[in-house]
Amino acid sequence: MFGAIWGGMAKLKVDQAMKRAKAHMRKGEMAEARALYEAILADYPKNERVKTALAELSGPVKVAAPAKGAASGAAEPPAEVFVKLSQAYQAGRLQDVHAMTGQLLGQYGNSGKLWNFRAAVSSNLNLLSDAEQALRNVVRLQPDMVAAKSNLGVILERLGKLDEAEECYRAVIARTPEFAEAHNNLGNILKSAGKLAEAQACYLNAIARKADYVDAHYNLANTLRERDLLEDAKQQYFKTLKLQPKLAEAWYGLGQTMAALKSLPEAVEAYQRALAVKPGYVPAMVEQLREQSHLCDWRACDLFAQHAAQLGITGDAALPFPLLPFEDNPAHQLARSRNFAKSLLPPAAPVSTIKPTSPEGRKIQLGYFSADFHDHATMFLMAGILRHHDRSKFEIFVFSYGKNKDGAQRDQVLDNVDQFFDVRDMSDGDLITLARGQNLDIAIDLKGYTRDSRLEPFAARLAPLQISYLGYPGTLGCDFIDYIVADPVVVPPEQRSGYHEKIIYLPDCYQPNDNTREISANAMTRAELGLPEDGFVFCCLNNNYKIMPTEFAIWMRVMAKVEGSVLWLWCNNDVAKENLRAAAEKQGISGDRLIFAGYMPQSEHLARLRHADLFIDTFHVNAHTTASDALWAGLPVVTLAGKQFAARVAASLLSAVGLRELISETPEAYEELILKLAQNPDMLSDIRTKLAANRQIKPLFDTEGYTRGFEQGLERAFAQRLAGEAFSDIAVSV
Q1: Under a CB-based contact definition with an 8 Å cutoff, are residues 443 and 462 in contact?
Q2: Using CA atoms, how far apart are residues 297 and 545, in angstroms rounded to an integer?
């Protein structure tokens, strides 16, 4: 009895609410209708009729027809219409507002205020062309509304119409010089065009007019950092963070600045602060991992392990290179590279953007692009190629976007190329125009995802054939890179699926070497290098970021069994030295048995390597140039052949110099081999003798022979492009 009464009352209450809600909807009063539906659902959460009606509110909204006799020529809708639009907008019902303004503009097409509503909602819905047209109408109808002109500039900027956006901002500034936002926005346009000094002036103008303008402070800090005004940038980030302590991007920028200033612990702290205010902030996490690896702060391994399955693979993109030392997984490297290319690089222009022309009767135009045309590892390796290129077949162009550093390697580059362009101050657009103007047949990127890389111009197509070479040990995952240069050891058949590009397989080793590199005759002694005269010297002069706990633990176990031995490491950071010594002590090895080497000129560096007994390699990222240095100096290298490109480089080098017996396949075999060589002087002596002979006769240091094979690979790849064939893997044989 009572149940029936209460049930009837509930039905009556629901019916009444439904009728009232529908009446509101007929008048266009969507917020009121929604409030009624939500109230009744709070009491009767299982009522399907109310649930359905509430869901319908997310669809198109009918606007109440004007009352009979209403003036059809009215310029503005009634005030209550704007109240309803504002309520819906504030409630996040953007589709409703978009539909409502569309209906209303049919009657009130001369309402600047209504067009402004339309622009705001279209912008938030990313309907940029719609927003542009709406703002043009606002500017036409209300020419004194400078904010609309400035907002039009923002939309034009988002549409890539940068020249028009710049005109808008300059017009606003000319009319209203105190409009701080226009100064800031103009600075953004100029910054994107590479005009950093002019952008800096704009941000200062914005701040002068609005002292607490956080965006302008932040943009100024970024610009100062890009101009290498690092101390000024640091102070500017501090000013930004004083205004907005929870701006994660500013903490990130401060971290980048501190890293550039070589203040790595402070950089790590800044990245941690960024992550504290924005958990899961991928760029900050990647850079924290990078700098912790440089510091040999292996707490980073735990952080990476927590995120390894997703970091850069799903969700936000992550710069792939800093993550290479943390795992040996070609599939993950490919996924990260593809995600990065898709998310953070421009869309790839089609391969047909630049039509190839036959080289018959002319030379192939070959362009190298890098920031490292100076005394740098890449140039130590490449100098011989540049010297031996067949100039009857190739014309060599160099595009240098790094700092202008004079020196012997820079001089060699200048002496052995046909055209050298210093493009460091050029915008991407100007670089594309310049490179295309040289009618390049082949464009070669030497940086990949390493620091100071510049892949954006390649996305637009600089040449009919584009190749990744030498600088980055892995796939780039980009549709605009046609080939990667490798060899059968660094990319064995079972790992081929981990590479996005087609592959030019060189017959011996992908890495070039210059067989004229001078080894200093300076008769330095072990004592001068801080080494014991008699003890066994294990050596790993790799960058610190490559050293990880697994191989370090092996080194410590071996040292425990080789009395009087020391480990000679490269290090230029006191915190890293402390961390490494502490790690040794934890494993029962005195920290004093770790000897640290610093920078030396190349010829002297090669000479000092002769004082070591055995080079022991890192795992996930091997010695690259450093392994070539050791072998050229006559120092044997023991490596573990991993899976990814970076983990197989030393194996490739050893194969090409005829010392496969120094390649191990498991950590256990690696440890056993190192110990055996350290405890068997005759065995190690035989290896040294073999290396001394092989460096003269094996392919690794045959610079001219290497160059001929490399050129053959380039010619065959270009022939495919010329014939209009689909790119395919190429195996060079010479």
Answers
A1: yes
A2: 9
Rounded CA-CA distance 506/483 in Å is: 12
| Four-point Cα dihedral 546, 549, 553, 559, nearest 10 | 40
Query: Does position 64 have pLDDT exceeding 50, yes or no?
Result: no
Average pLDDT estimate for 498-517: 98
- Stated pTM of the model: 0.87
Residues 657, 659: Cα–Cα separation, whole Å = 6
DSSP secondary structure letters along 11-78: HHHHHHHHHHHHHHHHTT-HHHHHHHHHHHHHH-TT-HHHHHHHHHTTS--PPPPPPTT--TT-SS--
Distance CA 158, CA 152 (A): 10
* pLDDT mean over 443-468: 97
- 8 pLDDT higher than 70: no
Determine the Cα–Cα distance for residues 540 and 530; give it in Å rounded to an integer.
15
Token duo for residue 389: 């290129």
Spatial separation of the C-alpha atoms in residues 457 and 353, rounded to whole Å: 13
Distance, in Å, from the CA atom of 192 to the CA atom of 197, rounded to the nearest integer, reads 12
Burial of 204 (0-12, 13-18, 19+ CB in 10 A): middle
Cα–Cα dist 184/451, whole Å = 28
289-325 residue pLDDT tens: 999 999 999 999 999 999 999 999 999 999 999 999 9
CB 251 within 8 A of CB 241: yes
Tokens encoding 624: 């690259």
- Both structure tokens of 29: 């009063």
Taking the C-alpha atoms of residue 710 and residue 384, their distance in angstroms, rounded to an integer, is: 12
pLDDT of the residue at 65: 45
**366 contacts: CB under 8 Å, gap ≥ 6:** 389, 394, 395, 396, 397, 440, 441, 442, 444, 714
- 331/498 Cα distance (integer angstroms): 5
Joined together, the tokens standing for residue 561 give 């069994």
Q: Tokens in use for 158?
A: 């988002």
pLDDT at 271: 98
CA separation for the pair 565, 677 (Å, rounded):
13
Calpha distance 377→354 (Å, rounded): 32
Bridge partner residues of 442 (DSSP): 366, 465
First to last CA, the chain: 99
Q: Is the pLDDT of residue 10 over 50?
A: no
- How far apart CA 260 and CA 245 sit, in angstroms, is 22
pLDDT digits (tens, 9 = 90+) for 663-694: 999 999 999 999 999 999 999 999 999 999 99
Percentage of residues in the chain having pLDDT higher than 90: 86
Tell me: the pLDDT tens digits for 634-662?
A: 999 999 999 999 999 999 999 999 999 99
Task: Please report the sign of the dihedral spanned by the C-alpha atoms of residue 613, residue 698, residue 388, residue 727.
Answer: negative
User: Can you say how many angstroms the Cα of residue 394 is from the centroid of all Cα atoms in its chain?
Assistant: 32
Structure tokens at 666: 């498991």
Q: What is the dihedral of CA 136, 142, 145, 150, to 10 degrees?
A: 10
**Cβ contacts of residue 505 below 8 Å, gap of 6+?**
486, 487, 488, 491, 713, 729, 730, 731, 732
Average pLDDT over residues 496-501: 98
